[in-house]
Amino acid sequence: MDVTIKGKVAHSFFMNRAQPMTTSDEETLVLLVRRQGRSSHHTFQLRKTDPLSKLVEIYVATYHLPSVTLAHNGRALSASKSPQEEGIPNSAILDAIILQGEISAL
Q1: Long-range contacts of 69-77 (CB under 8 A, 24+ apart)
Q2: Would 48 disulfide with which of 1, 39, 84, 92, CB 3.0-4.6 Å?
């Protein structure tokens, strides 16, 4: 998985960290993510067919957050679905809603 943050490619621990993103512009989307209650945003690039969970994973790790859910135009998005499946257009602004106090299974 590759997600571009502010012009830099961030790789998850699932992929070879030396491998750059090699998809064409037609296969990727630029998504703007802003944290709930803030006006500034962070720019990410994600393949249209990758699950949104990849973006969430990088976002929470980069900004040291417990967990977030993404929303577009007030509608919660499923992290297991891709931007294409959710009907998210290029340059869409997504809201990152911080989830706190989640109970983990024992």
Answers
A1: 69/96, 69/97, 69/99, 70/33, 70/94, 70/95, 70/96, 70/97, 71/95, 71/97, 77/52
A2: 84
